[in-house]
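Retro notes (design track)

What went well: tokenization of the new backbones is finally stable.
What didn't: we kept losing track of which sequence belonged to which structure.
Fix going forward: every design gets posted as structure first, then sequence, in one message. First example under the new rule, 448 residues:
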């Protein structure tokens, strides 16, 4: 069987018009068996988080207002698509009614557990998939019957052997009897049968996992831009499509902020040797990116990525060099709090680490104060220059340093892997750094 996974993101299913575009694209792959993975309609997952937060803050009125707007948006989309059958409307209503019940519970208790949050957050994909499957007139598979995960609500980890087994039982028979199925991205279920989610932006990851589990010939990520670009086009409007990337380059760009791809997506695809392409729903014949086995951009810098909301924690201890095991004690503090550190830089008497600014920084600061003098810098961003030939091209350093001349840099790391050179700067300077680097690498000369 020649099977493809086609994942459509929030903007791609964001309106009746774009769902029509989706149908057209799905039709273009007629010769294949197709697993269509959909995100929630653009903005809906954010609204669901807002409902949960409003309920927790005892503002049930606000939660109900958003619920009403969500029901209207889905119903209007169904009407515009001509699929306003009573069972479609009832299914949407039932999902939102369940969210309403959960919101009332959260309001009553003033408590929002990660488990309840995932149940609420799953509503977006459950509703969008109903619309898309009805419009495409094909079976709808509840992803929770296949996407088996641990119980790490909010960022659940897939259990690949269980997923493969479930896919063989639930998904493959549907593909034997038909050419097309629709399922949800982002959501799964744990051993107890409770709904889990793979983390924000996780529908790409779902596509990677399902593609690997079934052994498809390609995983297609359909989004609102023509593939992975040389920088975020919202920051650099002249950014252009990177046509070929390695798995390493794509994973590195994704984990350093290139939102176009969830960072975990490429791992299952790489393990299974399946190519991943990233394409535009709005320009299906336009350019696209391909990530496939044995391929590389062959460039010192393939693209620039940027992630905001970073903090730097520095610990200074005059006698650090005389204290064996200092670093072990230091990292133990992070480990015990379950905080993962990103970049690390050490000097004679101090250590700086960067981490997500959402970590419990005050508590961490108190723990670390036992080891030395602590300072915490917030409002930082990390910018990464990524390319397979980066290490082999010393000029990359000069080009980068020249480009960010006069901008204060807090931390520099030539990644432990060979494909990444990253800088941490103040958030207010970050866009300028991205633009300067883009200009140096892509506009002045063809790479360093
Ligand atoms: P979807 O809803 O389809 O999953 P996302 O909003 O998650 O789409 O990701 C697409 C967005 O990622 C683009 O609109 C773009 O603004 C942003 N983006 C950030 N960095 C890059 C990059 N290097 N290349 C392409 N898009 C990028
Ligand atoms: N709907 C989810 C989110 O907004 C998952 C996704 O779109 O990938 O995070
Ligand atoms: Mg996304």
């Amino acid at each position: 069987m020649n099977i493809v996974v086609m994942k459509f993101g929030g903007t791609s299913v964001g309106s009746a018009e774009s769902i029509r575009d989706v149908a057209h694209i799905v039709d273009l792959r007629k010769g294949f068996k197709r697993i269509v993975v959909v995100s929630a309609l653009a903005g809906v997952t954010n609204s669901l988080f807002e409902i949960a937060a409003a309920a927790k803050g005892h503002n049930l009125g606000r939660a109900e207002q958003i619920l009403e707007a969500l029901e209207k948006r889905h119903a209007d989309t169904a009407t515009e698509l001509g699929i306003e059958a009573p069972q479609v409307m009832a299914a949407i209503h039932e999902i939102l009614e369940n969210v309403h019940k959960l919101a009332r519970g959260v309001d009553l208790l003033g408590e929002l557990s990660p488990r309840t949050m995932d149940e609420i957050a799953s509503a977006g994909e459950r509703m969008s998939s109903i619309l898309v499957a009805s419009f495409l007139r094909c079976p709808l598979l509840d992803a929770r019957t296949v996407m088996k995960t641990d119980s790490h609500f909010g960022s659940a980890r897939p259990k690949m052997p269980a997923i493969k087994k479930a896919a063989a039982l639930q998904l493959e028979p549907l593909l034997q009897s038909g050419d097309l199925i629709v399922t949800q991205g982002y959501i799964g279920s744990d051993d107890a049968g409770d709904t889990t989610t793979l983390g924000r932006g996780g529908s790409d990851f779902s596509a990677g996992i399902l593609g690997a589990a079934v052994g498809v010939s390609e995983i297609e990520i359909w989004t609102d831009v023509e593939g992975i670009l040389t920088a975020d086009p919202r920051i650099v409007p002249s950014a252009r499509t990177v046509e070929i990337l390695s798995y390493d380059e794509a994973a590195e760009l994704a984990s350093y902020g290139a939102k176009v791809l969830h960072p975990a997506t490429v791992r299952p695809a790489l393990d299974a040797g399946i190519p991943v392409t990233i394409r535009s729903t709005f320009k299906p014949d336009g350019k696209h990116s391909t990530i496939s086995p044995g391929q590389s951009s062959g460039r010192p810098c393939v693209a620039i990525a940027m992630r905001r909301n970073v903090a730097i924690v520095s610990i200074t201890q005059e006698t650090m060099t005389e204290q064996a095991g200092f670093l072990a004690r230091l990292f133990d503090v992070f480990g015990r709090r379950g905080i993962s550190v990103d970049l690390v830089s050490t000097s004679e008497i101090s250590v700086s680490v960067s981490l997500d600014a959402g970590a419990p920084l005050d508590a961490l600061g108190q723990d670390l104060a036992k080891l030395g003098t602590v300072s915490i810098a917030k409002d930082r961003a990390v910018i990464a220059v990524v390319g397979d030939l980066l290490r082999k091209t010393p000029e990359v350093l000069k080009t980068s340093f020249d480009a960010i001349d006069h901008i204060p840099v807090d931390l520099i790391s030539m990644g432990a892997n060979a494909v990444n050179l990253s800088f941490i700067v103040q958030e207010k300077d970050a866009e300028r750094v991205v633009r300067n680097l883009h200009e140096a690498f892509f506009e002045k000369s063809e790479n360093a």
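Added context from the reviewer: The pocket of adenosine-5'-diphosphate (ligand 1) is lined by residues 9-12, 39, 201, 223-225, 228-229, 231-234, 258-260, 303 (CB under 6 Å).
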